[in-house]
Specification:
Chain lengths: 499, 317
């Protein structure tokens, strides 16, 4: 074994009831490198990480850590070994201070278990400044932004002398400025010999920060490459094993009648005079920065939140939509930003989730028609190619991409003809993205009207027929997709120009 | 076939596990006491279990929906007093029973409304109801029991159909209906969905406020039904009846695999849970174990059952 190798995982296999999640994965890690783990949703990245961080036990295979074969028993054991993980959902206690979080479970004490706050704060401050951070150790976590909270997690891992740091999509919630700062910190860590396993879907990032990359597909490791020896297109091909004709396969369809018109929607401090029309068979893209009011608009259209004044007109008729129930009855569906907390009931089965908004049409006198429900579910599992051992599998056991497909199935099944997609492809790999885009095409072909909210401007440009840009609660730009450019949209989103 | 079996086991294994526990318990008691496994004693156990079992059905719905109801024991007492007073003042028996169910339903709907419209945590609003309903029961009777009912009313406790005691028949009917409600109807599906992820349920167009209120109403109504059985058995309505019944019912649900986090649980499991508690009490009585020790044993069984359940679930994921 090479001396600079800190971790070597050989032929790792992990089996869940009914699913082989990992099948013969090989992965190694050198001191002081950033090793990128790349793969579609459901390829097995999360499972591999969870084995390494002690959350899961492997079914088969060997793990060598600093040359010795080990078996990681639990998350605590992993930490003692020096393996820290920073998950997408940060694990901090919001009401405690930065220092208290950094030292949680290993507080320095004076005597009789009394915490030495002074020393704790000093040590925490040292680590933070070592990372080039200006965060004060005595601030409470809830006062910090996501980027700063992430830094606290990094500091926490340094306190326990981590030799391996695993970062799962660390940049998904960060601005460009914050990403640069994070990368600077990662480079410092590298210099100190820390090995970083880095997961991200943003291919551009990988070239900025990565040293080597391992591609995983369908639970198998496809290959490990030096990042300079491989191109983006090659990586995408390895991930999905098929050539991507186009990243955005929008097929324009004939536009039909007006499906929805919004007139002068106002909500104090949130939306200012929003008016637009949406036609059958079109995709209306809504761009805008975080906090521009785009998600709030979606929630108001869907009847989740109330508004002060304005009209919603569906197919020429004014409608009162003050609950999601009414919205669905009027033919509107909303695919929320966050599938786990808003889109799915994780404890229920694929079948129950898909049919949840459609139960009214499946029941007579309140009794569910089992045969019909089974038939409908089978259809959508087949159409959407949802990978599940059976329709009674609980959704929590499915991979992220398949969970997103269940959300899709839920709304396809409910036969709504106006669909609002809020960040439909966030945290989803290239292959699954294209599948979702193709579904949008198919839906518009059948006359469905789609509103697509996205913070990815290329996606807005690639998939929309018309584009609205929002800035501080109002519409700051309207474009046909042919005349829009990335710059124009960005200028409107920033409020620099109106279009 | 193999995959089907695996899937079945994944979803129903828990129930068979609890049933297995019940069977072992029965075998042990049978070995220790020859009187235990006689038809008359088993019917006796079923009869003693029936009240807790009926209340536990309501709690199972509530707990699956993500809530808790601490007021069932007090609602039982209040419904019982109203039932007794109604019969005393000459109401026909069926009407008096409807009064009991109605009072229970009403208390439950108040709970549900406070939780859904008043946005109170279920623990708080039902804690309040626990005291309020008990207070009404004591106030109306000035703390004295109500008695002197028509002879026919006793049939509900002592009567038999095909040698099966009436309380057991009522329990069986309740369980059949409840199982159907929970597995085959919209109400059942929504109960799981609300408890599993309330926000997702709202965003799927479910009228969560309405269905949650209904669940608490159902729970209250079942307490009213339990009051009918208890009053018939004692041949009097006591304002202090049903104290601590909520804990027995919660225990039956939890032993039966209902998760206090919501979104998980079955009616069959609750029935088995209620019987584990009933069999244990009966067996310990037959063996002449003191009631003090009984409390220790039953408490331990609850804890062990949940520990085993959690260990099994951890294994699964």
């Amino acid at each position: 074994m090479k001396p600079n190798l800190i971790l070597n995982m050989k032929n790792i296999r992990k089996v869940f009831p009914g699913v082989v999640a990992l099948d013969d994965i090989c992965f190694d890690l050198r001191r002081g490198e950033v090793h990128i783990l790349l793969g579609e949703n459901g390829a097995g990245k999360s499972t591999l990480i969870k084995i390494l961080s002690g959350a899961y036990r492997k079914t088969k295979g060997q793990v060598y850590f600093e040359g010795q074969e080990i078996s990681i028993k639990n998350p605590r054991h992993a930490q003692i070994l020096g393996i820290s993980t920073i998950y997408q959902e940060l694990n901090l206690v919001p009401k405690l201070t930065v220092a208290e979080n950094i030292f949680l479970g290993r507080e320095p004490t004076i005597a009789l278990g009394v915490v030495d706050s002074k020393r704790m704060n000093e040590m925490a401050q040292d680590v933070l400044s070592g990372l080039g951070q200006k965060i004060k150790a005595q601030t409470t976590i809830c006062e910090l932004g996501v980027a700063q909270q992430q830094m606290v997690e990094v500091a926490k891992s340094l306190i326990i002398n981590s030799k391996i740091l695993i970062m799962d999509e660390p940049t998904s919630a960060l601005s460009d400025q914050e990403i640069n700062e994070l990368f600077a910190v990662i480079k410092r860590l590298k210099k100190n010999g820390v090995a970083v396993i880095y997961i991200s879907h943003r291919l551009d990032e990988l070239y900025q920060i990565g040293d080597r990359v391992t591609v995983i597909r369908d639970g198998k490791s496809i290959g490990t490459f030096s990042i300079n020896d491989i191109s983006k297109t090659q990586l995408i091909r390895l991930m999905v094993n098929r050539k991507l004709k186009e990243q955005y396969p929008r097929v324009k369809t004939a536009v039909g009648e007006e499906a929805l018109r919004v007139e002068g929607i106002k909500k104090k401090g949130v939306l200012r005079d929003i008016s637009f029309s949406l036609f059958q068979g079109e995709i209306l893209g809504i761009a805008g920065l975080l906090g521009s009011g785009r998600t709030e608009l979606a929630r108001i259209l869907f009847g989740v939140d109330s508004f002060d004044s304005g009209n919603k007109i569906i197919k020429g008729r004014r409608v009162q939509i003050n609950s999601p129930r009414k919205a669905i009855q009027s033919g509107i569906g909303l695919l929320t930003e966050d599938r786990k907390t808003q889109g799915l009931v994780l404890k229920l089965s694929v079948r129950e989730n898909i049919c949840l908004p459609s139960i009214e049409r499946l029941t007579t006198f309140g009794v569910v028609n089992n045969r019909k429900e089974t038939a409908w579910t089978k259809k959508y599992i087949h159409d959407l190619k949802i990978k599940t051992p059976g329709m009674n599998q609980k959704v929590m056991f499915l991979s992220g991409g398949n969970q997103q497909k269940v959300v899709m199935g839920k709304w396809l099944c409910s036969h709504v003809d106006i669909l609002i997609f809020d960040e439909p492809t966030r945290g989803i790999d290239v292959g699954a993205k294209v599948e979702i885009y193709q579904w949008m095409n198919r839906l518009t072909e059948n006359g469905t009207a789609i509103i697509m909210i996205s913070s990815e401007i290329p996606e807005i440009l690639g998939m929309s027929d018309r584009i609205l840009v929002m800035h501080q609660g109002r519409i700051s730009g309207k474009f046909a997709s042919s005349e829009a450019t990335q710059e124009k949209i960005l200028q409107c989103a920033l409020g620099v120009a109106n279009g | 076939m193999d995959e089907k079996f695996q899937n079945y086991w994944l979803h129903h294994g828990r129930q068979w596990g609890t049933l297995f526990g019940l069977i072992i318990l029965i075998i042990v008691l049978w070995i220790l006491s020859p009187h235990f496994l006689t038809i008359s004693n088993l019917l006796n156990v079923a009869q003693q279990t029936s009240i807790n079992a009926v209340i536990a059905v309501g709690l199972t719905f509530v707990i699956i929906s993500g809530g808790i109801d601490l007021s069932v024991g007090s609602i039982l007492a209040f419904s019982g007093i109203c039932l007794g007073s109604a019969m005393q003042s000459g109401f026909p028996i069926p009407l008096a029973i409807l009064v009991s169910l109605g009072i229970g339903l009403l208390c439950g709907l108040v709970n549900g409304t406070l939780i859904t419209r008043g946005k109170l945590p279920p623990f708080i609003s039902t804690l309040g109801m626990m005291s309020v309903a008990r207070g009404f029961a004591l106030l109306f009777t000035q703390g004295r029991p109500v008695s002197g009912f028509p002879e026919d009313f006793r049939f509900l406790a002592t009567g038999e159909v095909l040698r099966i005691p009436m309380p057991v028949i009522i329990m069986i009917v309740v369980y059949l209906i409840a199982h159907f409600l929970l597995t085959r109807t919209k109400l059942g599906r929504y109960t799981y969905a609300m408890g599993g992820n309330e926000e997702a349920a709202v965003l799927s167009g479910i009228n969560v406020k309405l269905y949650k209120t209904m669940v608490y109403g159902l729970c209250g109504m079942l307490s009213g039904l339990a009051a009918v059985i208890l009053t018939a058995r004692l041949n009097s309505a006591q304002p202090i009846a049903g104290i601590m019944y909520e804990l027995d019912a919660i225990a039956a649900s939890v032993i039966g695999g209902t998760s206090l986090m919501g979104g998980e649980g079955t009616i069959v499991g609750t029935l088995i849970g209620a019987f584990i508690m009933g069999v244990l009490r009966n067996g310990l009585n037959l063996l002449g174990v003191s009631s003090y020790i009984q409390q220790i044993v039953i408490g331990s069984v609850i804890i062990i059952a949940v520990l085993v359940d959690m260990a099994l679930k951890k294994n699964k994921s």
